[in-house]
Amino acid sequence: MIVYPNAKINIGLHVIEKRLDGFHTIETVFLPIGLSDILEVIINKASKEKHVEFSTSGIFIPGNPSENICVKIYEKLKINFNLPALKIHLHKIIPVGAGLGGGSSDAAFFIKIIDALCELNLDKEKKLYYSEQAGSDAPFFIENKISFAQGKGEKIFPLLIDLKGLYLVLINPKIHISTVDAYSGVTPKKPNISLKNLIVETPIENWKEVIRNDFEESIFKKYPQFQSLKQNLYLSGAVYAAMSGSGSSLYGFFREKPELNPELKKYVIWEETL
């Protein structure tokens, strides 16, 4: 069975407070996009032992394959379910550590595929439970619809906004930004108006005045190239441009497909009409 775990971008991101458990309370909007990995899972009938054979191709994934999030999810599920041996192959297309949720998406799609393949009959709450153990933004990929997120990012609420027809340009300058470093540069602050209300009530042409990503200020100071790339997106005609998550990807929404200058074009990793 083959599935295509897709990426997401964040529209706005507020870091509200640091929690006692070391995580941060945030609010953001997740938008699923078409950029996807390829995940294949098959039952390994030839194996006498109930374990996973995991392989990858495409973009290099650092770390030991046995520590991959899909393997970890398999081991967690195996505690409660009589799972068969599996062969998992992940072809990585979504950049790693790019603020696009690639690893979380792989985990959520693996939960959905193993549920179908092994007939586990997991209800939505169980899928959300297992996905949350994979990453704070992984529960979003269970429903995989534009959503407002709170808490660590795991509390997901459907959001009705119409972005249909906008043209998305996604760029990545291939600079790795540690999530820990990104959070260390942010001073948590409760916003006066909820991000959800700002996005729903503000025309997209005015988003650049009111919709912010709290990571941008410190990241742009440390990496001035990001500020330059964002400005270039606006100069190319974007109605809204921002960094996704804690970086290192940036995106722009356009009314039509833009003519990009060479500085932007060399970093484009995905384009689509929403």
Structure description:
With 274 residues, the protein is α+β, with helices and mostly antiparallel strands. It has 2 domains: 2-158, Ribosomal Protein S5, domain 2 (2-Layer Sandwich); 167-273, Alpha-Beta Plaits (2-Layer Sandwich). The protein contains 10 helices and 12 strands. The chain has helices at 69-80, 102-117, 124-132, 140-143, 179-184, 195-201, 207-210, 216-222, 224-235, 262-265, and strands spanning 2-3, 6-18, 24-36, 38-43, 52-58, 86-92, 147-150, 155-158, 167-171, 240-243, 250-254, 268-273. The strands form 3 sheets. It has a 4-stranded mixed beta sheet with strand order 1-4-6-5, covered by helices on one side. A hairpin with a 5-residue loop joins strand 2 (6-18) and strand 3 (24-36). Helix 1 packs parallel to helix 2 and helix 2 packs across helix 3. It is globular, with a radius of gyration of 19 Å. The mean pLDDT is 95.
Record the SSE blueprint:
Elements: E1 2-3, E2 6-18, E3 24-36, E4 38-43, E5 52-58, H1 69-80, E6 86-92, H2 102-117, H3 124-132, H4 140-143, E7 147-150, E8 155-158, E9 167-171, H5 179-184, H6 195-201, H7 207-210, H8 216-222, H9 224-235, E10 240-243, E11 250-254, H10 262-265, E12 268-273
Parallel strand pairs: 5-6
Antiparallel strand pairs: 1-4, 2-3, 3-7, 4-6, 7-8, 9-11, 9-12, 10-11
Helix pairs in contact: 1-2, 2-3, 8-9
Brief characterization of the structure:
This protein is of the alpha+beta class and 274 residues long.
